């Protein structure tokens, strides 16, 4: 397991204090440890580097070197800076779903947890926000995925669009919109098809659906354990289809959550929710404090 940052820094400062007063150089040494800790938590190298440079400026101006517990002091500065980076002006849990029926497009790679997350989000919107929700699977390549969403719908008591064989993704999306309007739904979730890797056909299809329904939110579902890959996926989806937010899944796993920091720093998009298990209620609003604590170990 990882040695946590506080312990690691205490070690550094113990060594340093034996040599007398701490200098700016000592703070630099400590921040090298911070950088290693960030990399171990799966933060990407350029993001870790920039972050440490920003923290250096803050730490130098403060009385870190005079503190009796300089290690903890640095950890606090780093923690606060992490929270700052992860916090945006938006409220992560508040989706733009006024003007019913509001379309929400769920995008991401196959296996990221997209269908499961669609169900979780539908349940949350229904139970916490009191919304009438309709779900539709646009995965014409995998009939099993369409059935999976229907089964989830039955489990959580959320309606799904009936499956009509032979339609393309745009036709299904438009039918969902019609049904959502006629049926008095507040929001409809479109679970788009995923691929194992990003390819042109997938992107084109998502773009066509986007142009057809003009989603209020386009939420990218990514596996939080995939670190740097998750960030690349987010950059690519954002460049091609434009995303409004991110949902990180598998945050119940062993990962240290560094993907969250890289994601925010690189794409500037808010992380809205995190998936914390396979069950339908294992979805929580993103909390910068929790992720910061986890990154620091
Ligand atoms: P999709 O191909 O992107 O639609 O992926 P699925 O929704 O079918 O999910 C793939 C697997 O990941 C399923 O076994 C899910 O139960 C599991 N899964 C999804 N989200 C989470 C999560 O937050 N935590 C854990 N542990 N498993 C998850």
TrEMBL record:
Its EC number is 3.6.5.4. Keywords: Cytoplasm, GTP-binding, Hydrolase, Nucleotide-binding, Ribonucleoprotein, RNA-binding, Signal recognition particle. GTP binds at residues 108-115, 191-195, 249-252. It is found in: Cell inner membrane; Cytoplasm. It is a peripheral membrane protein. It catalyses: GTP + H2O = GDP + phosphate + H(+). It is an enzyme of class 3 (hydrolase). Part of the signal recognition particle protein translocation system, which is composed of SRP and FtsY. SRP is a ribonucleoprotein composed of Ffh and a 4.5S RNA molecule. Belongs to the GTP-binding SRP family. SRP54 subfamily. Composed of three domains: the N-terminal N domain, which is responsible for interactions with the ribosome, the central G domain, which binds GTP, and the C-terminal M domain, which binds the RNA and the signal sequence of the RNC. This is Signal recognition particle protein. It comes from Seohaeicola saemankumensis. The gene is ffh.
